Amino acid sequence: MTVADTGDLPANQSDLHRFAFTDALTGLGNKYRLREKLRQLIMERASDPAPFTVGIANLDGFKPINDLFGPSAGDQILCQVAHRLKACIPDGATVVRYEGDEFALLLPLVFERRSAEKMGSMLKEVLSAPYDLGERNVRLSASFGFAIHPFAGAEFEDLLKSAETALYRSKRRGRGQITVYSTEMAEQMKRATQIEQALRNAIIADDVDVHFQPIVSLKDDSVLGFEALARWQDKDLGFVSPAVFVPLAEERGFIDSLSETLLRKAAEAALSWPKELFLSFNLSSAQLLDPATAFNILAVINRTGLDLRRLELEITETAVMSDPETADKIISELRAAGVRISLDDFGTGQSSLSRLCDFRFDKVKIDRAFVSRMLTDSASEHIVKAIVTMCHGLELTVVAEGIEDFAEALKLKGLGCDMGQGYFYGKPAPARATLDYISQRYDGEDGVERRRVSGD
Ligand code: C2E
Ligand code: CA
Ligand code: CA
Questions:
Q1: Does any domain span residue 311?
Q2: 312 Cβ below 6 A of ligand 1
Q3: Same structural domain for residues 163 and 200?
């Protein structure tokens, strides 16, 4: 019978060799040990190839533990994780500490997706029990990515890259998720890389554009400002939605250059609008993790010469909550400079209302999902009503998104919602068309607004 391999080396290996293949903290093997084991397994099976699986387990929320309780608490947890994994992996399997809070597994007898998922559930269970830190217990969950040989990669590097990709998918879906690398994922990756290349070129060629959607007062339908929305049409890929390319730019680490181009273009367009109209610009979640964001935004706006008091930045609650401290710093710096902050897609995130009250916002945008269901679903209507009441109690302005018809507009007016945005008032339009839209509503001579009920 084979025995579970914990990455320990036979005693006759030289100390140096042992040192190079062992993780000093946990005593497990390290990534070189895993590579070695994997190579052996492939060699053993050369004449009779059968699939096998590699997996990566990554602790969720490990960094805050280190920050909160100190690195020695973090070390204790890593050792306990190592101990648990060692104790529960099947015979013949190997577990190593791959790097940081990531552990990797080699599972020679896991041949297909279903058993990889089962293995993931078992390991997840084992890792979810409380960790003993002496004075206190903490609970952590773990996310998993699995890749099956040879389909997900023939060599060590490729297999681990596939497992990392699967893990990344898990992380994006939240905590405690399990993903097995699939053909579909491989195709999506290929397409994502295509989009990435094209988008990087489009940024350099200044081909990414901004459109503007009006935000109106629900008291008298006058236009108060516009939300800038990114638009990109590639000659080969066609129209690509910002809901696709913005997250991609975040993932691949060039959201800053994309956002800078967009903000510059949006601010330049806003310069030719009447001065009382605001420009609302979306910040991506990754930008709220970067302490340099406030400085960068202020620099771009100052270069264009737009009055900072005309700028609003839309952020989502999920983005605020992923690193509340940094987000708070960025928000405070921007507000100190006169920029207003809107909380976008309100009602869709998972944060608690009390946590949200810790932050200083100026506006809350009710998510389109509630507005579109409001007339047919009384729960949605009650939610909208409650958000309006709560926001007014906190002296926040409320904007309803996604108003598509007159009946919805009427209902929201009745509920006392301050501002509205949606196809009923105007679809996102290019800068030129936006100027026409504005001039239809303003008397060019004296700047007085011709307050019209719109929807055309
Ligand atoms: P969002 O910030 O929630 O933007 C509102 C989305 O709803 C826009 O989609 C807009 O076109 C759409 N919309 C507006 N009114 C209506 C309506 O009445 N009915 C319906 N069905 N839809 C309506 P879009 O332009 O496709 O943008 C999608 C998302 O991409 C945005 O959601 C935002 O999260 C992101 N995004 C767009 N532009 C930027 C940008 O410049 N920077 C960043 N960071 N994110 C952006
Ligand atoms: Ca928005
Ligand atoms: Ca929104």
A1: yes
A2: no
A3: no
